[in-house]
Design a protein that fits this description.
Blueprint lengths: L1 H5 L8 H27 L4 H10 L7 H30 L7 H17 L5 H26 L3 H20 L13 H4 L10 H4 L9 H18 L1 H11 L1 H6 L4 H24 L15 H12 L4 H17 L12 H13 L2 H28 L1
Helix pairs in contact: 2-3, 2-16, 2-17, 3-15, 4-10, 4-13, 4-14, 4-15, 5-6, 5-7, 5-13, 5-14, 6-7, 6-13, 10-11, 10-15, 11-13, 14-15, 14-16
């Protein structure tokens, strides 16, 4: 059995298996480091804090309540998944879309404005979110393709432009007595995503909608697009070497713009399937970009920058993020879960080193087995 796992072409030689093992190792080490930090802050509550973060919705003794809050975690994870796909899609094409946060903001503004001000049906609002966010992503792609402006710089600038533009836009549809936008349920029920009976599976949680299914479907489609289609091959080829792609007849500038437009559209889709559930209202006075887009970066790399891996990593990141709200705030800050997430993501940078180390160990094992086999044959 050990030989089968270690031999050339065996299970441990598989890059996907190595990525999964590396990610699991990062999670365990991140939790360990987080636990040590908790011990330093307050030894008495460290174990309980980690348990609360990992339990999340299981914190509730009632099965009905646990199921309901499990649904809420899934809703948030589906939006995070789309932001994760936005980041990894650009990464696969050689671009770093740190602008997923701003594109998510633009998508939020577009879908909420169409739902609250224009009173459009949910599918129009969702399309508006995708198109608006895609256009913002295309701006970064255009600057990169034609003026060689680093996409990281343009994306960071656009993040803040997006935030304040959306704040101004949604001021027109905010409640009179609060800084929050009106609820879609009270203004335009047709703007809410349909539940299709999914809410009943989660103790009548009205926020669980068709968006949950759509997010998983989009993840599969992104995987197919990148790995199984001509367009995906061209986009990745452009990312590897745009000059070689141009020499081969590919339209490298168009591919760069298209990549960022698709990445932006994915983030916008995430905003749509989140805010069109009615789970949250937008605060028009906020001065910081929502964390969802930045957490997408974490989920993308924890999932090995693979669309299917992002499904599981997005859920995990959201699980421990939501679990942080159950930490005893008299002992620790509720942001302690973000700190643990940060440790895990930081350690994800060592997945490549883990792969190199593992392959070296397997090579040495193969050499020893080969040497033993040689001696046995001679005997």
């Amino acid at each position: 059995m050990n030989r089968a796992f270690g031999k050339k072409g065996g299970l441990l030689r598989n890059s996907g298996v190595q990525t999964v093992l590396g990610s699991l190792l990062c999670i365990l080490l991140g939790l360990l480091v987080g636990f040590i930090v908790l011990l330093i802050i307050n030894p008495g509550g460290a174990a309980g804090a980690v348990a609360a973060i990992l339990k999340n919705f299981l914190y509730y003794p009632s099965a009905v309540a646990a199921t309901k809050y499990f649904g809420t975690t899934l809703v948030k994870a589906s939006a995070l998944l789309m932001c994760s796909l936005s980041v990894l899609f650009a990464w696969k094409v050689g671009l770093f879309n740190i602008g997923a946060a701003g594109q998510y903001v633009i998508g939020s503004g577009a879908c909420l404005y169409f739902a609250l001000a224009l009173k459009m049906p949910w599918y129009i609002c969702l399309i508006a979110a995708v198109v608006a966010a895609g256009l913002v992503g295309a701006v970064s792609g255009f600057l990169k393709a034609y003026f060689n402006v680093n996409e990281v710089i343009s994306c960071i600038m656009l993040n803040w432009i997006a935030l304040y533009c959306v704040n101004m836009l949604l001021t027109k549809v905010k409640e009179q007595s609060t800084p929050y936008t009106k609820t879609i349920k009270s203004v335009n029920k047709g703007g809410l995503l349909p539940t299709l009976g999914l809410d009943k599976l989660f103790s009548n949680n009205e926020f669980v909608t068709v968006g949950l299914v759509l997010a998983v479907v989009i993840a599969v489609l992104v995987w197919i697009l990148l790995g199984k289609t001509k367009l995906g091959y061209e986009l990745k080829a452009t990312g590897f070497n745009k000059n070689a792609a141009k020499y081969c007849g590919m339209r490298e500038k168009r591919n760069i713009i298209l990549t960022m437009a698709i990445a932006g559209g994915l983030a916008g889709f995430g905003a749509g399937i989140f805010y069109l559930t009615g789970i949250e209202q937008w605060m028009v006075q906020q001065t910081s970009v929502p964390a969802m887009g930045f957490n997408g970066i974490a989920a993308a790399f924890l999932g090995g920058t693979h669309p299917l891996g992002a499904i599981f990593s997005s859920y995990f990141i959201q699980h421990i993020t939501s679990g942080g709200t159950y930490v005893d705030t008299t002992l620790y800050s509720s942001q302690i879960s973000d700190l643990i997430s940060a440790f895990i993501i930081y350690l994800c940078g060592f997945v490549l080193f883990f792969k190199v180390w593992l392959n070296k160990r397997l090579d040495k094992r193969d050499e020893k087995l080969a040497a033993k086999g040689q001696k046995g044959g001679e005997a």
